[in-house]
Inverse folding.
């Protein structure tokens, strides 16, 4: 039955080069203080265009945790967090980031003292990198833990640094008219978030002592809108069989669309991503040498296993093509953005975070993308410390089985804590699912 | 008849009994291996220790039971938890100890002890057997070696392999698959030990790290387990010569104190009895102690730091 | 008196039976299942519903065990199991106001398994101090009122709402009287009995509950000297009742529970709804008042925090130590835990963290830990005295 023919992923040149943009971004953050810039720590929604227009340097907490995990540098921060008292079942993004806050604030043991688990060297290494914030902004969608997390960061810093909370209502779908991007609930939630974004701008003006530059916001949002359109064009090319690019390529571009500055460089990046995919289509170069299965990935990313996972799926000729995390997030509805009056479209994207929907909408999005990309099976990353993303997974699997007749598999892992990962389980479940796809094809005479 | 008290520690895989004299000195002690918590095991330990001490049960002023099976020990005056008893026993065996790490057959605990030997805080593993004696048995079985040979194997390991699963159930499969990938048993043994120590560090972090660190319980007899724990703590780890009896010893001392009608400052009784020589990190002079013959095994922290540097991946 | 306590215990032990029986005797009325923690039950009561806070049950999770992943709290997974087994069909509608990601996961399962029962989420914003929050909360209350009116087909009578508020306040006041008496050492009810008082209040018709409480108080509660060696404060569990076997274990290990901040305890009964305001506005105000009176880590508010509340409560009751009861995987509790620990350590208050699950609590290990806490407190006291 299922055999390993051992495809390898042909990684895209552009995303490889794009890694430098991210490295440069973080290097820039690390020197913010020397350059006399105000630094904001934020979590959740992509508020960065507002920060960019206000002349701030922005540091996204989850992104920093994800980066540490991807570089296998999460250990010291997580240990500092554990020593401070965070239990390992807590969201690993938050305890990694809070661990950084503990270190950054010197809240850990005094350097050189013998009382701390984390030694002074580790502390200096990390603490010197992440500059202390001038203020916090939280705008977490979907996950209730997100807002509480920044409240704790605020406390770790001795309650002395100002914080502003933008509350994003959960799109529960109370009314019959509640559907994806429509209905009374959607309109009211949009109005409410827009109102808070205006209050946020007032807060930022007070923090920086400068009037907010609305033109700069319009400009950066017009770049972001264009970048998003190019990204979606690239995704559309992946409807082809075999696919010219994979989910893993889109994962490699998450940082860009999620928090890099909205500018010409961003547009150029996504233009080159789109162009490279188009060139592959033109030259008949597939992402996998021998694509036999087309899969959908539901779950937040397992950052410390990213390359490994991509390789694992490829070995079984399984092209992971689309996913909730990549395809239903990150300025994915650019038509909502009006660069002349950007706040409304921004608020709506914050509401469209893929963990901010109830099951009804998630069923719609999953079925839509599975049909669009002709998916053979779903892979669910049951993310140990991310309840928000894992919430509806078993029900999504049953809906897909019922409506599309496609199988699903689950594997356990985590966003930033490799200890929750069980390799053997992934492999045996993947093989089992691929075998069931084979059986289904044999029955259908395909 | 001079006053004698007995402490009995019924653990998950061993039964320990200690008889002390009225000054708190050990008269006799015994460790009996059992397959599981067993009344027969505890009876064997009690009989043997009484025999060694030349006593009858009726000669004892007090019998105190402790350990996981403390409520199964017959005819005792009262029970104390192993937390209280280990703290008490270690404080006597090694005055000044600030952190006790006890790893037995099926559980592990970290106990922070204050300057007079009272429990400040403690943390225990729940149901997970990760890092306990049982876990090392699984490791030995998967590596097809004797439990006693694990030490040499692990201490010879260099490369740090990624061992993700610390669950005793999954670890065996993971170890076998590492073997199948052609990894060296030495590296596997060392890596598993490292991963286990990291877990213990998690337990320590729940109570806060403190020094000096004393390790007790059956696992403390493993040179490799002590080595890797010290490596991950980056601090010396002191092991009493009889690391398994500290709970029973503490129980016997608590019995003695209840008869003497006072709760004395921990360690005092023992200090009177023994001359301590050698240096401890807290400046105390202590290479022999409570038993009058026990030897600490001080760990050279600099040596470890060097081995960490050599072992670690860049 | 025992007959009253027995009746309350009976309802607390099997809320479903009470609901089914109530429906039988009230064939033209509806029962609303309410999810914790902040939904104003008074509104539903005024509209003629029997509001019932849905409790964790004692059955093992089976049919619904795998719908939510194993890293969800015991309560939410048990709700999913109840939904999968059809146990929640006794409710005509569901209401919730709290944005907890795990609770919403369970609510999604309820809607998935019981698609024809309306489940209304009127989200009360958790960031209490932002300028836009009060108006938003008021707006959500208006939405809830509209939903209730849609469900009953008649406009909500504000006079009846004021009456329901008075009734609920009365019940809370009576419960507080017992809790205060325990804290002051005037009565010694087991912590199991104390839990039954509150849990039955979450289930029963309020007037019936009040009548029983009034009878209980006028008969008087037996007072006896406990043999307890140490006095403990129970802290945590924001949504479901800690298992009674666990409460018995504490007492069995030589501890007496003198106070708590549990949802099935002080948290549920501390805050009254103001009777001097327009009733819907008063319910909105109640939401803000609750978090000041017994702050909750699910809320974000800079001028109220649980750690300050906890240390103050401990000093008022004279408790020797604190048991922190954490529903395993409860993220707000895990996030705040280091702050609680810091506050308790700063005041040298001994504490023990106990993580709870729906089934399979390692009781022997827990016994060791609880006994160790009791020994730690008593030995310290003995040394201090000698």
């Amino acid at each position: 039955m299922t055999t390993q023919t051992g495809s390898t992923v042909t990684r895209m040149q552009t995303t490889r080069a794009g890694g430098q943009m991210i490295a440069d971004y973080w290097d820039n953050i690390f020197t913010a203080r020397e350059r006399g810039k105000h630094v904001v720590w934020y979590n959740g929604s992509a508020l960065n265009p507002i920060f960019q227009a206000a002349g701030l340097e922005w540091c996204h907490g989850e992104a920093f945790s994800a980066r540490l995990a991807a570089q296998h540098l999460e250990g010291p921060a997580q240990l500092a967090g554990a020593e401070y008292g965070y239990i390992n079942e807590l969201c690993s993004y938050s305890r990694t980031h809070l661990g950084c806050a503990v270190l950054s604030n010197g809240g850990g043991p005094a350097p050189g003292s013998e009382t701390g688990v984390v030694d002074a060297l580790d502390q200096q290494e990390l603490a010197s990198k992440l500059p202390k914030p001038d203020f916090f902004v939280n705008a977490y969608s979907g996950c209730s833990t997100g807002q509480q997390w920044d409240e704790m960061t605020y406390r770790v810093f001795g309650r002395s640094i100002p914080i502003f909370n933008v509350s994003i209502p959960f799109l529960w779908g109370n009314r019959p008219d509640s559907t994806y991007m429509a209905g009374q609930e959607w309109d009211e939630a949009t109005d409410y978030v827009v109102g808070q974004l205006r209050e946020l701008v007032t807060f930022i003006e007070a923090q920086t002592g400068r009037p907010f530059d609305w033109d700069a916001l319009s400009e950066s949002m017009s770049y972001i809108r264009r970048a998003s359109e190019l990204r979606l064009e690239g995704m559309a090319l992946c409807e082809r069989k075999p696919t010219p690019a994979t989910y893993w390529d889109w994962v490699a571009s998450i940082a860009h669309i999620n928090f890099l500055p909205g500018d010409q460089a961003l547009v150029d990046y996504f233009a080159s991503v789109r162009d490279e995919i188009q060139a592959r289509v033109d030259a008949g170069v597939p992402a996998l040498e021998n694509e036999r299965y087309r899969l959908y990935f539901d779950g937040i990313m397992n950052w410390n296993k990213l390359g490994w996972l991509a390789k694992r799926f490829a070995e079984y000729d399984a092209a992971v093509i689309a996913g909730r995390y990549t395809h239903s997030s990150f300025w994915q509805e650019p038509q909502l953005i009006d660069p002349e009056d950007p706040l409304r479209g921004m608020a709506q994207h914050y509401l469209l975070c893929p963990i901010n929907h109830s099951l009804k909408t998630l069923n719609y999005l999953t079925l839509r993308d599975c049909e669009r990309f002709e998916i053979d099976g779903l892979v669910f990353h049951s993310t140990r410390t991310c309840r928000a993303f894992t919430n509806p997974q078993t029900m999504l699997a049953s809906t897909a089985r019922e409506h599309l007749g496609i199988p699903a598999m689950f594997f356990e892992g985590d966003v930033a804590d490799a200890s929750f990962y069980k390799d053997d389980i992934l492999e045996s479940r993947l093989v089992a699912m691929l075998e069931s796809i084979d059986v289904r094809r044999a029955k259908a005479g395909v | 008849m001079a006053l004698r008290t007995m402490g009995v520690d019924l653990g998950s895989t061993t039964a320990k009994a200690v008889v002390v004299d009225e000054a708190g000195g050990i008269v006799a002690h015994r460790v009996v291996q059992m397959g599981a918590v067993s009344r027969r095991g505890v009876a064997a330990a009690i009989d043997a220790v009484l025999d060694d001490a030349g006593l009858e049960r009726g000669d004892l002023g007090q019998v105190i039971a402790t350990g996981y099976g403390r409520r199964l020990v017959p005819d005792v005056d009262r029970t104390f938890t192993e937390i209280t008893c280990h703290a008490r026993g270690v404080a006597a065996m090694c005055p000044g100890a600030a952190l006790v790490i006890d790893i037995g057959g099926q559980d592990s605990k970290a106990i922070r002890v204050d300057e007079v030997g009272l429990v400040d805080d403690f943390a225990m593993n729940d149901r997970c057997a990760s890092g306990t004696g049982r876990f090392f048995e699984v490791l030995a079985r998967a590596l097809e070696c004797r439990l006693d040979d694990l030490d040499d194997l692990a201490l010879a390991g260099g490369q740090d392999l990624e061992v993700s699963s610390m669950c005793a159930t999954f670890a065996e499969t993971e170890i076998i698959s590492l073997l199948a990938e052609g990894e060296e048993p030495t590296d596997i043994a060392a890596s598993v030990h490292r991963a286990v120590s990291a877990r213990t560090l998690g337990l320590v972090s729940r109570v806060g790290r403190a020094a000096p660190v004393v390790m007790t319980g059956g696992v403390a007899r493993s040179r490799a387990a002590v080595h890797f724990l010290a490596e991950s703590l980056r601090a010396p780890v002191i092991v009493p010569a009889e690391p398994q009896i500290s709970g029973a010893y503490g129980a016997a001392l608590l019995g003695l104190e209840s008869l003497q009608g006072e709760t004395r400052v921990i360690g005092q009784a023992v200090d009177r009895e023994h001359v301590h020589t050698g240096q401890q990190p807290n400046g105390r002079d202590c290479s022999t102690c409570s038993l009058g013959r026990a030897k600490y095994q001080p760990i050279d922290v600099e040596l470890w730091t060097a081995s960490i540097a050599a072992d670690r991946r860049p | 008196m025992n007959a009253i306590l027995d009746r309350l215990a009976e309802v607390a032990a099997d809320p479903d039976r009470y609901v089914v029986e109530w429906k039988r005797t009230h064939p033209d009325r509806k029962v609303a299942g309410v999810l914790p923690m902040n939904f104003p039950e008074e509104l539903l009561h005024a509209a003629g519903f029997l509001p019932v806070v849905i409790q964790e049950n004692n059955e093992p999770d089976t049919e619904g065990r795998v719908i939510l992943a194993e890293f969800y709290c015991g309560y939410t997974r048990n709700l999913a199991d109840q939904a999968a087994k059809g146990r929640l069909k006794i409710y005509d509608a569901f209401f919730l106001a709290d944005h907890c990601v795990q609770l919403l996961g369970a609510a999604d399962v309820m809607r998935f398994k019981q698609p024809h029962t309306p489940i209304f989420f009127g989200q009360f914003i958790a960031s209490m101090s932002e300028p836009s929050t009060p108006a938003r909360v008021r707006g959500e209350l208006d939405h809830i009122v509209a939903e209730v009116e849609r469900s009953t087909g008649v406009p909500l009578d504000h006079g009846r709402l004021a009456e329901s508020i008075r009734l609920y306040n009365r019940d809370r006041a009576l419960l507080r009287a017992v809790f205060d008496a325990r804290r002051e050492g005037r009565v010694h009810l087991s912590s199991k009995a104390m839990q039954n008082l509150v849990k039955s209040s979450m289930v029963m018709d309020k007037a019936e509950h009040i009548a029983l409480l009034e009878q209980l108080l006028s008969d008087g509660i037996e007072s006896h000297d406990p043999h307890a060696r140490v006095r403990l404060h129970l802290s945590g569990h924001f949504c479901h009742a800690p298992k009674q076997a666990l409460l018995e274990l504490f007492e069995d290990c030589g501890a007496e529970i003198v106070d708590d901040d549990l949802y099935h305890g002080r948290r549920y009964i501390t805050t009254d709804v103001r009777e001097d305001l327009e009733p819907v506005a008063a319910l909105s105000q109640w939401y803000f008042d609750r978090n000041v009176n017994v702050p909750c880590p699910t809320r974000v508010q800079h001028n109220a925090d649980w750690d300050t509340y906890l240390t103050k409560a401990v000093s008022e009751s004279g408790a020797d130590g604190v048991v922190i009861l954490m529903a395993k995987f409860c993220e707000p509790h895990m996030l705040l835990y280091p702050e609680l620990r810091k506050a308790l350590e700063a005041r040298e208050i001994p504490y023990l963290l106990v993580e709870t699950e729906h089934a399979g609590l390692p009781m022997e290990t827990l016994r060791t830990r609880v006994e160790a806490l009791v020994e730690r407190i008593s030995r310290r006291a003995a040394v201090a005295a000698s």
Remarks:
- Confidence is low (pLDDT under 50) at residues 109-117 of chain A.
- Chain A touches chain C through 47 residues (CB under 8 Å).
- Chain A is about 55% helix and 10% strand.
- The longest strand of chain A covers residues 377-383.
